[in-house]
Amino acid sequence: MKHAIAFSGLLLASLLIYNCTGTKKNGVTAEFLTPEFNPNPTGKYLSPKESMATMHLPPGYRLQLVASEPMIKEPVAIAWDGNGRMYVAEMLTYMQDADAVGEQQKISRISLLEDTNNDGVMDKSTVFIDSLLLPRMMQTVGNELLVNETNTIDIYSYRDTNGDGKADLKKPVYQNDKYVVNDVNMEHQRSGLDWNLDNWMYLTYDAVRFRYTNGKMQVDTIVSGSSGQWGLTHDNYGRIFYSRAGGEIPALGFQINPKYGTLDFPDQYNAEFSEVWPIIATPDVQGGPPRLRPNETLNHFTAPTGQSIYRGEQYPADFSGDYIVCEPVARAVRRAKVVHQNGKTTLRNVYQRKEFLSSSDMNFRPVNSATGPDGNLYIVDMHRGIIQQGNWTPPGSFLRQKIDSIGLAKNVGHGRIYRIVHESSKMAAKPQMLNEKSAELLLHLGHPNGWWRDNAQKELIARADKSVIPALKDIATGKRNIATNEFEHLARIHALWTLEGLDAMDTALLITAMNDADARVRKTAVWISEPYLKSGDEKLTTQVGKLASDTDDDVRVQVLLSLYNSKSDQAKVIVSEILDKGKNHEMLLATKTALDKNENVRTFGSRLGQMDEESRKLIISGAAIFKSLCASCHGADAKGLAIGGAGMAAPALVGSPRLEFIEKNNLVRIVLKGLTGPVEGKEYTSIMPAMEANSDEWVASVVSYIRHDFGGKPPRKKGEIPGMAPAAVNNESGFPVRKASSPIVTAGEVKKIREESASRTTAWTIQELKPEIQE
C-alpha cells in the first residue's frame, strides 16, 4: 500500500561544525584535526541527529541526512532513475540475530523515495517491490528497474504502469535454472549490475556480464572470472574497480577490463594504504587479535565494500576522480587518489593516518556509496550492530563473544542515507530525463556530472531512437560541441559509445576518432573497433596499427588488448611491434602476461576432454563455486592474494601438502569443518569457515575442481603412462584400455567423511590433519 512519510527539520540541525582548518599539499587537503579517540564505545542506539554528531569529515565538508528509519530499514544499495527518484534495496532479514534466524524469509523489499521539493531530503516513500529474498542488485533502465535476489542469478524487470509508486508489472529478462546456488552464505554472492561505459553491465563473483537489448539480457562470459565481493564501480573512461572483503583487499581489478583477463600489481598500492584508522575501538573484528592494534582498533581493511568514483561537480577540483570505499567494521569511509602513469594505475590515501569520514557510533555501518544526480557523494549506512554474516558468528567464536558482550545483536531494523556536501556546493537541477525528448538527452552527454552522462547514454540506447544518430556523429567527431573545454572529450567518448549501443557505428567514424587530438578518444575508438578487427577488416586494422607507436601509453596498451589474440597476420605484426618497442614497459609486459593467462583459461574445456561427462560437470560446477567464493581469499590462481605489501588473508593452495594427489580426505575435512590456527607455521587473518551446510554434491564439486586445477599429479609407477590409471580390459576388443587418472571426489566419499566427523563442532587445525594415503 502506498504511503508517504514527511520529515521536518531533521536534517538542517544536524550539520557538522569544525573548529579546525586543513593544510593544502598539491591541491589536496592532507591534514585535519584528529577527532578524540573513544577507547570504550558502547552499542547504544543513537538517533540520526545523535549519530551524525559522532561523525567527522575534513574542513569544508558536512553531512546531511537524506532518509532514515522508519522510511527505510536495513538499506544496502541505492539507484536513481532518470528523473532522480531513488530506489533503495533493503535486506530486512539480514542478521536479525547472531544466529541468522529467519534470514531466508522472503520479506525484504525495494523502496522508492522521492524529494518532492528538491531540498535534498526525501519526503515521499512507497514500497516499490515487496516479498523479496534479500535483493542484491538493481539497475534502472528507462521506466524499468532490473532486480536480482539472493540465491539466484535470475534477473527480473519491474515497472509501475499506473503511477502509484508500486511495481505492478514483472517480467523475466534473464533466467538460469542450472545455476549452482550457494544458499548458505549470502555474503559470497553477486552484487553490482553496474552499467559501464561500454554498455555492458558488470557484477561481482559470477564470471559473466550482461547487455540489455530488446527487453532481454545478452550474456557474455568473462573467461578468467569476475572479481570483487560487495559492490563495484567505474570511472569516466570505463575502468572498473572491485574490492574483495574476503581477501581484505580494498581495491583490485582496475588495471584492465576483466574480459581481457586478470591483472593486479603487488605495488598498485602500498602496505600503508591497506591500514585503516578508526576513531573508536573496534573489537568486533572477524580476524580476531591479529587484526587489532593494542588499542583495539582495526589495523587493516577487513570489509572493504560499496566503492565508487566521485564523478560530480560539486566538490573542489582535486576531488574529481577520487576512489571512495566503505569500511563498515572500521566505521569509516576511505578517500583515495587514483594516480595513472605509464598506463598503470595506483592508489594512495589522501589523508595521513586518517579517513575521509569516520564515526564513533558503533552502529554506523557504511556499506555503499555513489555520486548522485545533484553531484554530491551519497553514503548508505546499514546502521546496525552486526555486520558479518552468520558463518563468522557461531557460538564460541571470537566475534560472537564480542557481539554478545557489547550487545550488538540488539540493533536491527534501522538505516540511514546521507549525502556529503561541500561549503561551495550549490543546489542542482533535478533531472527529468524520462520526460525529455531524445534530442534533449543528447545535451547531457557533455554534462560535468558523470551520473548525467551515463544515464543519458543509457536512456538513448534503451529507447533505440535512430533519429539522433546524425547528431551523435556530429558530437563524436567534434562538429557539434555540447560541453565546456574540460568535458569536450567526454562528450565525444559518450557519443561514440551511444552509437555503439544503437548499433550505428561505422569504420569511417572510427578512423576519424582514431585521429582525434585527445588520446582518451583514440583509445575509445580502438576499444569499440574490436568487432571489426575480429572480422578481419584490413583498413581498420591498418589504422589501428598506426597507433602502435602512439605517444600515449593507454592507447598502446589498448591496441595490444584489442589485437593480441587476432588470427590476422597483419595484427600479429602490429602486436610484435608494440612488444618489441616495449621490452622495458611494465604495463605492456604485464598486459601480455594477463592476456596469455586468459587464453589458457579459455582452453579449460579441452583439459577435461578425456573425462566422462559426469566428472566434467562436477569440475565445471566446482570451478564456478571456487571463483565466486574461495578466490576471495585464496586468489583466482590459488596462489593467495598479496596486494599492498600487507601479506595474505589466507594461504596459497598451490603446493599445499593437502593437495597432494593421494591426499583427498583431509581437503574434504577442511571444507566441511573449516580450518583454524597457523598453517605451516604462518598465521593468516582470515578464517576458513565451515561449509558443511552445503550438500555433499556441492562439497564434492569444489574439492574436485581444486584438486583438478591446483593439486598434485598422480603417483607414477614403473612402466605406467603419465596421467593414466592401471590398465583395464575392453570386453569388446580384448585390448587393454587406459582411463585418465581422476582427481574426482564423489558425493559418496564426502558423505562418508561427513558421517565420521558429525560430532565435531570446531574447526580443524593443521596438527590434527595427519597425511594419509587412500587405497
How would you describe the overall organization of this protein?
The chain is of the alpha+beta class. It folds into 3 domains: 12-422, TolB, C-terminal domain (Neuraminidase), CATH 2.120.10.30; 509-602; 613-768, Orthogonal Bundle (Cytochrome Bc1 Complex, Chain D, domain 2), CATH 1.10.760. 25% of the residues lie in helices and 19% in strands. The chain contains 19 helices and 29 strands. The strands form 8 sheets. Strands 3, 20, 21, 22, 23 and 24 form a 6-stranded antiparallel sheet that branches. Strands 4-27-26-25 form a 4-stranded antiparallel sheet, with no helix packed on it. Helix 5 (450-463) runs parallel beside helix 7 (488-501). It is globular and about 75 Å long. The relative contact order is 0.10. Residues 1-30 and 716-740 have low confidence and may be disordered. It comes from Dyadobacter psychrophilus. Keywords: Heme, Iron, Metal-binding. Residues 617-710 form the Cytochrome c domain. GO terms for molecular function: electron transfer activity; heme binding; metal ion binding. This is Glucose/arabinose dehydrogenase, beta-propeller fold.
